[in-house]
Structures are given as C-alpha cells and as structure tokens.
Amino acid sequence: MMEIIPAIDLIGGQCVRLTEGDFAQQTTYDSNPLEVAKRFEANGIKRLHLVDLDGARARKPVNLNVLENIAANTRLTIDFGGGLQSDEAVKQAFDAGAAQITAGSIAVREPEKVKNWLLQYGADKIIIGADFKGTNIAISAWTEESKYPLQDFMSGYLKTGAKLFICTDVSKDGKLQGPSTNTYRHLKLTLPDAQIIASGGVTTVQDLDELQEIGVAGAIIGKAIYEGTITLKDLARFLC
User: Fold this and answer.
1) Does the first or last residue of the chain, that is N or C, have fewer Cβ atoms within 10 Å of its Cβ?
2) Which of 54, 131, 169, 207 is an active site residue?
3) Strands 3-11 and 218-221
4) Is the separation of the CB atoms in 92 and 85 below 8 Å?
5) C-alpha dihedral over 112, 124, 3, 106, to 10 degrees?
C-alpha cells in the first residue's frame, strides 16, 4: 500500500507553500503547524514530511523547535529536511524527534558525507532527496538543472546502500498540474530496488490512484490539501 505523506513547509515557524521552490511565490496557510499536524493525525495520517525552508536558505536548521513540538504532541512519523548540511545538524534533527531525515542538495554536493550518514544511521533513517527537472538532477535551490541524470544519481546511491528516495519534479511543485507519472513509471522499471516517494504536482485523487498503480512507496501531498483539491476525507481509502 502506498503511504500518504502530507507536507508542512516552514518559514518563520508558519505553514507555507512555495511554487517551484521560489521564495517570491509564497503562500502562508496556517500560523500553527502543530494544529495542522494534529488535523492530519486525527484523519488517520501516519506520516509527515516537514521541511525547514528557513533552514534550507540558512544552510542550517532554523525550525527545530517546530519539529520538537510536533514530535512531542503527535504520534506522526516525521521525516525532516532543510538545512541539514553537517553531522551536527543531522544529530539535532534526530534528537528533536525526527524519525528520518532527508538529505537534499548535500546528497549531490557531498555524497561521501551522506554515505557516512547511511552507515551511521541506516538506510531506513536517511532519505535521499532526488530533486529533478526534466531527466536531470536540479541543484542550487532548484534554480539550475545539472547535467547529472536522475537515474544515474539514484543508481549510484542504491549501490552505496540507500533505498529511500523522495523524487520531486521541481517544475511541477506547487503548481497543481499533476505529477510526473511517466518519470516514476520509468524509474520503477529501471530501478526496481528503489523505494520511491513521489513529490511535486499531486493534485487529485486520480493522481494518487495512478501513482499507487505504478507502485511507488509513497506520495507527498502539499498544496492540494491546503487548496482543497484533495480533502483529508478523500485520503481515507488510501489509509487502510
């Protein structure tokens, strides 16, 4: 069964969404992320994707207090990302209550460091963030498309023991135009050992049906929940 993973993105301790990762295209949805997380939990959600956007800009965690608050007051399994550039930052995230962390841009820039995290914490706790545009990895806070093919990037990490990947199509993120189902289908066929969490563009329940049919391990839903194109009640049949 595909896991349903709502997202909370944080700026200034508030729940926001960006479009294509652009800080100039920010919408604030709720000033109390804990209440949002509690609503998710009350509707049967088990997982949460928590992103520290301030941390991503500062290159170190900024909203650890929010992580700690949600972890202490819900039973959600939280994966935390944003600003995790050092061994100390990763330890801080786990100490604050994260069950998993997402290694984002650092997985491209410093693969040896991320490989050490995989060895230290285990492949169940370290998710590799594979942000992509077209068929290549996106870098520089999503503003650039590298010449590093997405499939090669993931294949390399599989060989070093990684198994969990959040694959975000940055050209679709926050635009409510549907996910990159063809890309995920291709990745599932070519990299069957990768546990792929689809992210970016999920807009309707039909999108979730398609992703489940492809066989992805999970789907991250952000703006669709906040804009109401997918309701929490709609998700009930995926949570059995």
Assistant:
1) C
2) 131
3) parallel
4) no
5) -20
SS3 78: strand
Residue with tokens 């295209």: 25
**C-alpha dist (Å) from residue 126 to 33, 90, 158, 166, 171:** 23, 10, 12, 11, 24
> Which phi and psi (to 5°) does residue 219 adopt?
-135, 125
Please tell me the chain's helix, strand, coil percentages from 3-state DSSP, rounded to the nearest 5. Answer: 40, 30, 30
* DSSP-derived 3-state class of residue 214: helix
pLDDT under 70: residue ranges of the chain: 19-22, 140-146
pLDDT at 20: 60
Q: How many CB atoms lie within 10 A of CB 225?
A: 24
Q: How many CB atoms lie within 10 A of CB 216?
A: 26
Q: What is the pLDDT of residue 72?
A: 98
Where are the domains positioned within the chain? Answer: 3-238
95 tagged catalytic: no
Q: Note the CATH number of domain 3-238.
A: 3.20.20.70
pLDDT of residue 146: 63
**Is 131 a known active-site residue?**
yes
Distances (CA, A) of 44 to 49, 207, 218, 240: 15, 20, 15, 9
Could you give the CA distance from residue 191 to residue 66 in angstroms, rounded to a whole number? 35
Q: Given this model, what pLDDT does residue 3 score?
A: 98
Closest CA to 61 of 87, 39, 43: 87
Question: Pick the catalytic residue: 9, 52, 169, 207?
Answer: 9
In this predicted structure, what is the pLDDT of residue 232? 96
